[in-house]
Amino acid sequence: MATRSYAIIGTGAVGGFYGARLQKAGIEVHFLVNHDYEIVKKQGLRIDSPEGNFTLPQVYAYNDVDQMPACDVVIVALKTTHNHLLPELLPSIVKPDGVVLLLQNGLNIEPKIAEIVGQNRVMGGLCFICSNKVGYGHIQHIDYSAINLGEYQDQYQPGGISDRMREISSDFQQAQIPVELSEDLMFSRWKKLVWNIPYNGLSVILDARTDEIMANPETRLLAEELMREVVTIASSYNRHLPEDHIKIMLDHTDKMKPYLTSMKLDYNAHRPLELEAIVGNPLQAAITQGVNVPKISMLYQQLKFLDARRTGNREQ
Amino acid sequence: MATRSYAIIGTGAVGGFYGARLQKAGIEVHFLVNHDYEIVKKQGLRIDSPEGNFTLPQVYAYNDVDQMPACDVVIVALKTTHNHLLPELLPSIVKPDGVVLLLQNGLNIEPKIAEIVGQNRVMGGLCFICSNKVGYGHIQHIDYSAINLGEYQDQYQPGGISDRMREISSDFQQAQIPVELSEDLMFSRWKKLVWNIPYNGLSVILDARTDEIMANPETRLLAEELMREVVTIASSYNRHLPEDHIKIMLDHTDKMKPYLTSMKLDYNAHRPLELEAIVGNPLQAAITQGVNVPKISMLYQQLKFLDARRTGNREQ
């Protein structure tokens, strides 16, 4: 099997961690770095992790895609709020037979990428990871690291398990990152949205941690009702989530340590919210199908208000 | 026509204003005063108002209902969160042929009063007034003062226009307070709830003034959708609000000066919210009728969360 080269677009808590682990496993990785460029160029990357701390004193770091080689796998680990940059970033760094792997939350983010690099050159991945960027080139990995991988096909038709999925999976497993292969990326996306929509949304609106949301019977019920609405939209696309998925998500959240969602961290840091990818696009998908999801609709309306007031920005 | 004596339970921004204006018009008024008792006893009441400032150096002030005479009209101008005190306060101060007039917002607050003083001894009044208590015995009246009066009958059956409504109205008009007589108190309550539910609720949840809610297209639409849900509940009780009522409320709010709702003022002051009267009881009324009002339901769930966290209290 030929070895594959990787590019990491967005060397933050997610991209920095996975890229560093791949490189540590002997794989060739090229990092696009933004603010940290000078430091990472000089000092490399540092990962603190319960699975073992390590430093990579030397990495291929770039602050300009024109300097980067074309790679086999281009991992996009930006916030979706920066996806408007991708038409400039992607074309030159994906090999003709390469693929773009979007490690991002939300729905309907792939179609625009397919417009840039072409159909059949896009994969989606859902990360189940807790990590933070704590300093320049310094990432603190807290827990989990699994990725759920799927091929993107036009209109989210199920893409099956491809050879390149297996190849990428084998690279990640070499880096001790558990990978689950999904025959149906849209199914996987809805499954994760069942958690992401209620907790990301309510944590921002109510200024609350997950444990606070779960401790109050009213908001606990609200979270469950929002989950049901997500399940209903998924069903309208013939993605029937397992009967017990909501119960599992609630139990799982009960057992989590008090947790600030990524949207709440963005909100607190005055960054724009990943509102369209995580809430707006799923809502639009419901409207397209004529599915009534009033509580998701209200969540979106409230988040748009807060996002507009806080940042003065709009997601692009 | 005999003259009527009035008792004011709750000498705050609303009760203090109306009671002072009645006394200034030559009517006998007895004020139940809480924190301000010593000052009001000594110095009376001071009203600043665009309709004319005035002071009442001497008022009948009490800090104990046992000292108060029985009156013809007992005006309850407490927050509904204090209504649990009324079984102790009311019985001795209402004349046998007297009446209790509730100047409070919300729905289904009268039944408990009828249990205390008897059916046919309860009226409801909706105040359209902007006023604040700014110091001990000192009330600043900002704008409006109109009252909408109606008889309470069991189950909110329309009570028609009674003689005592006309008499009370004449007293208020003597005090230059515009009064509108309502043949159907429940109709009037729903009409006011169309405004109160969206703006009180959203102002607390989104930490927003009315003008901010109206300036953002998402929350403006949300306010309108909440209004539609209120109208739907009202319809299920055969109270059909005028076609253009929602539009009038929206236009009216557009033209208002930036305004913090009373629920938001309570929230900011760490007082318990009038959540059950204004949102919970209308929601319960919808559930009773099998009417689906998901956005009011979500508003209630969010407010319960915020109220419980902020005050550690529950409305009684």
Structural key phrases:
2 domains, 316 residues, Rossmann fold, alpha/beta, N-(1-d-carboxylethyl)-l-norvaline Dehydrogenase, domain 2, 22% strand, homodimer
Question: What can be said about this structure in brief?
Answer:
The structure is a homodimer of 316-residue chains. Chain A is α/β, with parallel strands linked by helices and 316 residues long.
List the helices and strands and how they pair.
2 copies of one chain form a homodimer.
Chain A: E1 5-9, H1 15-24, E2 28-32, H2 37-43, E3 45-48, E4 54-56, E5 60-62, E6 71-76, H3 86-89, E7 94-103, H4 110-117, E8 122-135, E9 138-151, H5 163-174, E10 179-182, H6 185-205, H7 210-215, H8 217-236, H9 245-255, H10 262-268, H11 275-289, H12 294-311
Parallel strand pairs in A: 1-2, 1-6, 2-5, 3-9, 6-7, 7-8, 9-10
Antiparallel strand pairs in A: 3-4, 8-9
Function (chains A, B): Catalyzes the NADPH-dependent reduction of ketopantoate into pantoic acid.
Keywords (chains A, B): NADP, Oxidoreductase, Pantothenate biosynthesis
Catalytic activity (chains A, B): (R)-pantoate + NADP(+) = 2-dehydropantoate + NADPH + H(+)
User: Secondary-structure element order of chain A, as H and E?
Assistant: EHEHEEEEHEHEEHEHHHHHHH
Tell me the β content of chain A: 15-25%
The counted number of beta strands of chain A is 10
What is the CATH class designation of the largest domain in chain A? Alpha Beta
Overall shape of chain A: it is globular
For the largest beta-sheet of chain A, the strand count, sense and barrel status come to:
10 strands, mixed
Mean pLDDT of chain A: 95
